[in-house]
Amino acid sequence: MKIVDVKTHVLSTPLDEPFSFSMGWVTRRGTMIVEVITDEGVTGWGESLCHGLQPPQIAQTIVESALKPILIGEDPQDVDVLWERMYNLTRPYGQKGAVPNAISAVDIALWDCLGRAAGKPVHKLLGGAYRTSVQPYATGFYRVEGRSYPADAVEEAKRHMAKGFTAMKLKTGFGVEDDIRYILGVRDGIGDGPKLMVDANHAYNVGSARRILKAIECADIHWFEEPISPEDVDGYRELKTLTSIYLAAGENEFTKIGFREWISRRAVDILQPDLCSAGGFTECRKINALAQAWHMPVVPHVWASGIGLAASLQFLATIPPAPLALKPIEPMLEYDQSSHPFRQDLIFGAITMREGRVDIPQAPGIGVEINREVIERYTVR
Ligand code: CA
């Protein structure tokens, strides 16, 4: 099998109702999709994570100018060698951030090719599934102009619970006092049942995060995600000794080299690599192996369209519980419920929740078919 073309698609559309998180206002949803075409008629699809404030054109430029020349004429079965070549040739300018973000989409597309060619879902090629479905948690709770908090967040939580969610994650990072009042208010409003996580998107320093952690200890919070800057590994180590709430981070870290420090220094309780940003299947399986060697649970970050979501479900199937037991602590699916005009429409055989679980797609490759009409409709030209 030979790669004959690598196409990129930048999709973007404005939101009817902009929303904010601790870093700013999100007014558009976008993504960068990669299509790898082979001489055997097999096409693979991949996606780069596009944060709310990230222009998807950056990943497109990297794939078109730096990665595509490395890939044309190569065999997708050499996926590990191709990953290392892409990383090595971009290393002087791209060890973290935009370049691994772009490599991720290519790598996912290569694995999708391999799965489609073999007639098997990617998780079978990666060694098999530890589970056939996962518990999703709802990511949402972004702030919208004119609403009142925590009252509107309690209403949103009830909507998620009515859909079958038993776990959800609040967006915080709007100020120490505001966050404390908000978190305690939401817990009070929804009762003891649902599992509740909070995510500050690195809005704090160690001192302010410590104050929040102390004040919310009574609210049975499962994890506090990105309380502080992703560069402050020592800060995470310090915070970890001060709270019984799990600390989680990883969406702003990249490659096995980047994760090495977080894992070997035991900086967090829960590691959150994003398949569409940390390096795709090739790299995330290695991050997985490192985490397993240090007995650290992995719960991937997911904030993607249907392509990245399907691929992340393939990855989720392969994450070993840490540790394996009769009733193991299982990874959850981060299931974004925030506004996204084309998230579901991009794939046929939409991924949905059934009785509070999301099934791992069993069809070949990432397990879903792509709707080219939707790609056409949202493509930025
Ligand atoms: Ca997050």
What does this structure look like?
By secondary structure, the chain is an alpha/beta fold. Helix content is 38%, strand content 22%. The protein has helices at 57-71, 79-90, 98-118, 122-125, 151-163, 176-190, 206-216, 233-240, 255-264, 275-278, 280-293, 306-317, 372-378; strands spanning 3-21, 24-38, 43-48, 133-139, 167-171, 195-199, 221-225, 246-249, 270-271, 332-336, 347-348, 353-354, 357-359, 369-370. The model has no long low-confidence stretch (mean pLDDT 97). Bound molecules: calcium ion (CA). Residues 199, 201, 225-226, 251 line the site of calcium ion.
Which second-level CATH architecture of the largest domain applies? Alpha-Beta Barrel
CATH-level-4 superfamily name of the largest domain: Enolase-like C-terminal domain
> What is the strand content?
15-25%
Q: Please tell me the overall pLDDT.
A: 97
The low-pLDDT segments are: none
Helix content: 25-40%
Counting structural domains, the number is 2
Shape: globular
Q: How far is the first residue's CA from the last residue's CA? A: 31 Å
Structural class: alpha/beta
Q: What's the CATH topology label of the largest domain?
A: TIM Barrel
